[in-house]
Batch of 2 targets.
Target 1
Amino acid sequence: MSTTETILIVGGGVIGLSIALELRLRGAEVTVLSRDLQQAAGYAAAGMLAPQAEAIPPGPMLDLCLWSRSLYPGWINKLEAMTGLTAGYWGCGILAPVYDIPPSLDSDSRAAYWLDRHAIQHHEPSLSSEVMGGYWFPDDAQVDNRALMRSLFTAVQDSGVTVQDGETVVALLHQGDRVTGVQTDRSTWQADHYVLAAGAWSGDLLPVPVHPRKGQMLAVQAPTGKTLSLKQVLFGSEIYLVPRRDGRIIVGATSEAVGFTPGNTAAGVRSLLERAIRLYPVLETYPIQELWWGFRPITPDEAPILGFSPYQNLALATGHYRNGILLAPATALLIADMIFAGKTSPLLAHHCHTRFGFKEHEST
């Protein structure tokens, strides 16, 4: 494509903004439409970069995640150099405690190091006495998702991308095998190329199997004036604790198939606190600082939908579920390469929408 052509991205979350920045840095004229920037899943995440701790099985998805994790330090340096803002990257490693010793440690290929009960309690003295051991993943990391979103949004705006917030896309207009425009609740937008990166709302615009999965989260504040109490992410049984350098600890997250039902619930918050305190008992004395929720875009195989669509000028970048923050830099490169050079990376082929089948809308 010519760099003078226009690209319109539907979705202002971490995926949409990352793609927008990459395309703009290559010279394209880019517009982003977002229904509500503050509702993007990236703001509601914990920011774990955890392909190993998440136990993603070997295959294309793990390859994609490991590659994206390797891109992170350089990507963060670029954002910080462009904006002068910190993006909150911390290569702190992830500790995954367990209450029962696995029957065969050799069978768990995700483990970088196994720590027995004595070693893990020495590594993190405030862990529960119920913990029998755990895995240590020194290459997994975290990023402060809110700091990342602020720096990313600033970089996008400073680079000349047009961001239209409060524009809810209601339809993709198309004729034959080409998208001809985007209809919002306010107006109609047209471009030469389009990218669908609308997260949990993508299924409202195309018949892709992307659905919302609600996650409730909370934050507590460790006592001030003390040495940082928790210095690595704890990835436990159906719970994770993500410390920030200022003493804030993120606790998450529920996984609820309740559509777009908003709000924190007593049951959701109770389950988070019970699991978190069981793993890290000192947490029960920390004041609760904040409660929130978000909607992650999940697909049937929990892997994203990337690359080509049934329309020649529409690219797909959606369904990242729990790994949107992690996969942002890799997704941006893959989609930009596809749009600019028609590159068909094997990673795009493995994550194409055709693995689910696709019934096209009638022409509009």
Target 2
Amino acid sequence: MKKLFRVLILPIAAVLLAGCAGTERESSSSGSQSSSGSSSSASSAKVTSQGSSEQSTVSVPIQVIPELPTEDIPEDVYGKHDLSYGNFIYNPNVTDTSNEARYYGDFRWEDDPKALWISTIEEVPWAEYDADAAVEYGLAHWDDGEGICAPFVSRCITEGNITEYTESSTSITLQLLHSRLGFGQFVPYNKSDHTVTLPSYARPGDVVQIYCSYEGVMIHSLLMVGTDEQGRLRAVCHNMRNSGQYAFVVDDLNDPCYDCESETFEMFFYHFYRDDDEGLPEAVVKNKNIMLWEQQGYFISETYSRERALEYARQNPDDGLGYYGAEHTSAILQAGGLSVGYPNQSALFLQLLKTHLGTAYSQKVRADRTVILPSQAKAGDIGFVYCPYDGTIISSFIISGSDSTGRMITLSYDLLNDGESAFKVDSQCIGCGDDIKEVIIYCFDDV
């Protein structure tokens, strides 16, 4: 009942409270300044080391996220998301000069290829994609007025023999990555004319989406139907309707993001493997278990402290379920030094993937509902429970270690876990009832 309450009640409460967000934010901000003299503060935690015969105590600063200023923010943004969350460094329209060094660090363009998500689960794709049928349906129905972008692309995929897809752009992304029918990649769009040039191996029938880096969500879905004479993407889609006859242009509706006013600059595309594929990334050719790949991309110039993140989690024990759990994991990551966070599990996962600070690994849930940690994992890394049917991340947690048999232990306190023994995963998704068969472990690279 505890889980069900948090999953069902907390999102409702968030919606009910959204209408008074501006008033609450203004009053709480003034109140915190009068009591502490500053809009941001830091507290210290005592960490005791028992690695030797003598105990030593170290003071670890725990950062407290300041209230973001509300001036110059459109009123209609309230109720759509909490502006105190997100990839702060990706949103130039929201600034906090009192703590700029921490929350708005540099991010740079990185040309080094990187695998962002790898599966350790050997599985054969459960379907064969008919790209021609998907494209034929898309060209015939791009203007039929039935649903918006994601439902339309979902129907196109269904016509291509892929039947279990939701009507959320972000969920479609996660489902495609999980399908093992190809791999995903992020590509910057052309800022000069807002068109998109995909890699040479992109083919009609591939799925393309606009990504909002601040919120960590896909905000628009398209189906590739070809390229123009300059190699720019031609696609069909609903809303921002496009017939696929000309190069697709990211218009003012989605740049900046219509939801949060952040600048958008990247597209996600999923390439379905073809028999005639040429020019695929060498790493993908060598390892078909790579689910998400990036040839080049934006890199967050931050470092993550596993120790500080773990100490915050020890001081603030809670479970990792649903909306509330995403908030808790966000606070853990921010205590560890990262400018990411969002009260949505799937968005938080995508944000973490995009930091380039590590790699995610899909791990199989064993018959006893436990998970063996991959060799790369260490205490302080982050785990996610994934429901492939819904295409959603349903919980998250921080890893505190493993037991004598290598089974994962987490600082997650729900009905099945005490934070001290092997973490046990629910047998079924509490939302849709589908079997839970995998957990995703995000392993930070050693700095």
